[in-house]
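User:
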Amino acid sequence: MNRSQAREWLFKLLYELEVQKADPEEQIPLFIENYAITDPKVQEYIQNEVKGIQENQQKIKEIISQNLKKDWSIERISKINIALLKLAIYEMIYEKIPYKVIINEVVELAKEYGDDASHSFINGVLASVVKQNHLAEEESI
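Assistant: Predicted structure:
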């Protein structure tokens, strides 16, 4: 399984869920079918990550809000950037994936799918999340 490709699919699904406000239980099988995702490990990864993000949605939104500049609110963030931030925060904090890996991949996705400022915005918010949650110290232990 190519984890980067799986993350890109996960991001696309999270974006669709942000835009459509659809039920993830219904959307996941349709998404997997539409993208012809045949690898059972990738299917399981997508299902588990969406479920985890949904279960921790309120805390993830709080983390995003706490790491925005004072004059920003979560409502101002584009749906693309929200999907990327949810993916990154969930994987860094709940899945304990090394923050350097996640930030690098999510910033690359922001460059590809977001606007000109998305990658800088995402990088700044996630750097703040790493500092606030002391993720840098945990990885160096």
